[in-house]
Amino acid sequence: MTLTQWLLFFLVVQVLHGLGTWKLYQKAGRQAWEAFVPVYNAVVLMKIINRPWWWTVLLFVPIVNLIMFPVVWVETARSFGRNSGLDTLLAVVTLGFYIYYINYALDVHHIKDRSLHPKSAAGDWVSSILFAIVAATIVHTYFIQPFTIPTSSLEKTLLVGDFLFVSKMHYGARLPMTTVAAPMVHDTIPVAKVKSYLPYPQLPYMRLPGFQKIKQNDIVVFNWPVDTMLDMYHTDKYYYKPIDKKTNYVKRCVGLPGDSLSIKDGYVYINGKKNVLPDRSKIQFSYDIQFKGISTNEQAYDLLNRYDITDGMGLDPETQKLFVFAASDEAVSRLKNHPNVESITVRKDSLGEANSQIFPKDPGYSWNNDFFGPLYIPKAGATINLTPEVLPLYKRAITEYEGHELSVNGNQISIDGKVATTFTFTKDYYWMMGDNRHNSQDSRYWGFVPFDHVVGKPVFIWMSWANGKPRWERFFTTVGGSGKPVSYLIPAVIVGFLLFGWSTYRKKRKKA
Question: Is 440 in contact with 224 (CB distance < 8 Å)?
Answer without folding.
Answer: no
